[in-house]
Amino acid sequence: MHSDRNNDNLLFATGEASYVTDASHTSDLDDQECAHQPLLLLTFKLVLVGVIGASIALLSIANNLILLYTFLSSKRRPERNLTYLTCLSFCDLLISIFYITIMSVQVYAEFFEYFPLFAAWHDCLPILFTLSNVTSATGSFLLVAATIERYLQTMKSARSVFLCKKMSEHRHFGVFLAIMIGMIFRGSIFFEIEIYRLPHCTGLSSMGVVLSQIASNPYYDSIWRFWIRRIVTIFLPFFVLAYCNSAILYSVQSDEAKDQRVKTLMLFLAKGTPRRYVQRPFRPSIQKSPRVRSATRMLIAVVSCYLIANLLDVILATWEYIDGESLAEMSAFYTVATDISSLLSVLSSCLRLPIYLLIGDRLLQIEAIFV
């Protein structure tokens, strides 16, 4: 059930190797033997994906439902710039649901050999797999848009101020653009997998998943699936977020250091100057409001969590670029690595609420706690 470079770690860094047969496409299945090949390390998957992963996904669903309700019911939502965070919470909610329906359900069906669940999973897989990938890519680019806007806000040039203002005025267009990018670069997955059925077989061996004829085309596979799509949806968001997050963090630390020097100087002047000459402390231009600083720290934490969760996926994708054959030979390692990467993605979605509660602005904390 493994296909070398066709393992396009599409959603939670889980490749098609988990459920794609050795056949190139449906025309090669006429003489397929009725022997079901179970998932590799099935017992391990039951614990990691079926128990731990599903539990984290359920908690993530609850957390993001709370966040969605908090954002949508907030009376000050328009002035608090919650457009991207609201849409990101919705994407996280869907990602957690898809994790259970795609990954956990497959493990349950195979481990307990329950054919009705196995058949239902196969029937729903093409549409669910496509939606999950579109959602995952959309969430990544929503985070990219929010981070670029905050990055421009920390810059001091007139051009960055102008661009930041334009982005803040057209956030809904940014959401639309993120959705379109997700649909364009991930929507084609629907046409890349097919469900096959073997009438002469029974039970779990009577059906499976195979790459479609278009996905088996060497030009489509190499140029579109392996190069363009991975660069745009895996490498580009990761490195843009890594750069912008580092720049924002440096700017925040620099501002705080400058503010500390200003406070020290003012304290010195206040103690060494007669009281009547002490003016009201001024707020230097570098000092942002507490709400803006809190929002900046919150975004830094969210992006850092995303980068950590997706680091393994980027490493695996890079490895496949450099030497895909060696990675395909280590099937057990690849299975464990992709399952851990999947778990980290859902864990990242689950941690949004704790991050907002610990680092977010006070109004958001109060509203979320009240909910």
Automatic annotation (TrEMBL):
GO molecular function annotations of the record: G protein-coupled receptor activity
G-protein coupled receptors family 1 profile domain sequence ranges: 63-356
UniProt-listed InterPro entries: GPCR_Rhodpsn, GPCR_Rhodpsn_7TM
Entry's localization field: Membrane
Matching CDD domains: 7tmA_FMRFamide_R-like (cd14978)
Membrane-spanning ranges: 46-72, 84-107, 127-152, 173-191, 227-252, 298-319, 331-359
Keywords assigned: Membrane, Receptor, Transmembrane, Transmembrane helix
Transmembrane found in the keyword field: yes
GO cellular component labels: membrane
Family matches, as Pfam families: 7tm_1
Keyword Oxidoreductase applies: no
Gene3D superfamilies reported for this sequence: Rhodopsin 7-helix transmembrane proteins
Name by which UniProt lists this protein: 7 transmembrane receptor (Rhodopsin family) domain-containing protein
Provenance organism: Ditylenchus destructor
Phylogenetic classification of the source organism: Eukaryota, Metazoa, Ecdysozoa, Nematoda, Chromadorea
